[in-house]
Amino acid sequence: MPVNVNDVIHLLCRISEERKMKAAVRHSGRGALVAGATAFVGGLMGGPPGIAVGGAVGGLFGAWMTAGQFKPIPQIILELPPAEQQKLYDDAFAIIRNLDWADAAQLTALVMGNAALQQKLAAVLINYLSHELRAEIRNLNLFSISLCSQHADNRVI
Predict the structure, then answer these.
(1) Model-level pTM?
(2) Which terminus of the chain is less hemmed in, N or C, by CB atoms within 10 Å?
(3) Higher pLDDT, 143 or 3
(4) For residues 74 and 88, is the Cβ–Cβ distance under 8 A?
(5) What is the spatial distance between Cα 41 and Cα 56, in angstroms, rounded to a whole number?
(6) What whole-number distance in Å separates Cα of residue 13 and Cα of residue 108?
(7) Do 2 and 96 touch, CB atoms closer than 8 A?
């Protein structure tokens, strides 16, 4: 059944909410610039030991500057331009194409009831965000399902 792009986008939002996933576009250039500048100034003022101290201080300052810039993934997904949402939809639809559903609510129920599908769609989402947007992903529950099921399968009784 044809599915609206918005339905799949909301499904991906639901999966990322369940897994408490957050992402931040990396500002590594800015952090590297700060670290390099302080290392340079440290080198001018203190020679080789000054470079080390300046680089360390600059690295810490650069990390502090870029910290706290994580946003919930649903917010990031919903703010994507339509062309980017279409790319994400195409990647996700490759996984759910063979499911049989009547509407978005049934599709969501099918996916949320299937841990393997959730994990595949979460992987699509992480892959898209990390490769297309160069985002750093933080999530608390991405691998919990696979680790628990693997542990249960290897249990000696």
Answers:
(1) 0.62
(2) C
(3) 3
(4) no
(5) 12
(6) 11
(7) no
What distance in Å separates the CA atoms of residue 63 and residue 89, rounded to the nearest whole number? 33
What are the backbone angles phi and psi of residue 59, rounded to the nearest 5°? -60, -45
d(Cα 95, Cα 84) in Å, to the nearest integer? 18
| Local confidence band at 112 (pLDDT 50, 70, 90 cut-offs) | very high
Give the DSSP letter of residue 72.
E
Q: What CA–CA distance (Å, rounded) separates 66 from 147?
A: 31
Residue 143, pLDDT above cutoff 60: no
Tokens 């980017």 correspond to 84
**Beta carbons of 42 and 50 less than 8 angstroms apart:** yes
**Nearest 5 degrees, angle CA 99-CA 109-CA 120?**
60
pLDDT given for residue 142 in this prediction = 45
Contacts of 78 (CB under 8 A, 6+ apart): 9, 13
> Please, which residues have CB within 8 angstroms of residue 66's CB and are 6 or more apart in sequence?
24, 26, 27, 28, 30, 31
Residues 40, 136: Cα–Cα separation, whole Å: 28
Structure tokens at 49: 């030991």
